[in-house]
Amino acid sequence: MTPAQAILGIETSCDETAAAVVLRHADGRGEILSNVVLSQLEEHSAYGGVVPEIAARAHVEALDTLIEEALLQAGRPLASLDAIAATSGPGLIGGLIVGLMTGKALALASGKPLYAVNHLEGHALTARLTDGLAFPYLMLLVSGGHTQLILVRGVGDYERWGTTIDDALGEAFDKTAKLLGLPYPGGPAVERAAKSGDPKRFALPRPLVGEARLDFSFSGLKTAVRQAATALEPLTDQDVADICASFQHAVSRTLKDRIGRGLDRFRTEFPQLEEPALVVAGGVAANKVLRATLDELCAKAGFRFIAPPQVLCTDNAAMIAWAGLERLSTGLSADTLDVQPRSRWPLDQKAETLIGFGKRGAKA
Ligand code: KG4
Ligand code: ZN
To answer: Which residues are close to ligand 2, an ion, with C-beta < 5 A?
Structure first.
């Protein structure tokens, strides 16, 4: 049995500066000792999206204090830790450089091993930290930069089953909000407005529904929203609410079809598995309507549905520390100090490159 191990995690790939200390008990159970996140929302909201240069500078200003705070809250000085883990991609290169260089400096100064973590692997393995989920499982990652359906076979072992061929889902929420005059980030604003809207008023397209491939497409939906809004101008509050509700409804139906097919494929490939599971991660996973759709779909298909708590769905450093712990406890070797940040870094290296895959920071 591996002894208990603890790691400091650092996350700076987009607009959240984060540091966390996570412990992996000898029995494999994970425990978050601290999880500090500083969102840069205010710095970017005036621009309606993330500005890379501003993000990088904000990471520089906040990161050292955040790391100090994470160690203090955990009651674990650096010397007592087993390793350092820092996100090294994919993401905005300026932010990645800040986090990875800080990780390297700490590793060098303390003589601890360094794990350069793929941010997407952090999302992919979170359900093992929160729920001790066993491999294999299916994961839907839906954030501002990604929309991917991934088979998670093991640590470092991923197969992409579907991805967006144009916009990421979070991006579609953000763009819809922008053209309706709602604040950034758009997802929560659209969800809020949709509550008092009629989801049936506009028949918006459901891209790729009915197709055998497991990919996604959201740019046509965004265009249809624009056309509906332009035709009605000037928009009343009720018009905005109805468009938001119709948009969310179309997304919900699209996910139901795409993910439903994904669950079928998973069943076919793993017929022996007693309790197959779908995990959802990323900022869009906070959406209650979409969560309910996926929950219902899984219940009908006999799948366990796991949606980690909101703070662990959105960007955080606990998931980066945990990904490092998974590698450490599996006996995978640490990275050398010449490891480089990578703005593109797909989880499934063999998958064909489609637009929207393996990139982050695409929020407009
Ligand atoms: O994972 P995340 O915090 O950062 C990225 O890695 O992108 O995801 C942010 C995205 C944004 O596009 C935001 O609009 C969306 O998640 N989002 C939501 C909701 N909350 C955040 N989308 C739909 N409904 C929500 N409640
Ligand atoms: Zn993320």
So the answer is: 143, 315
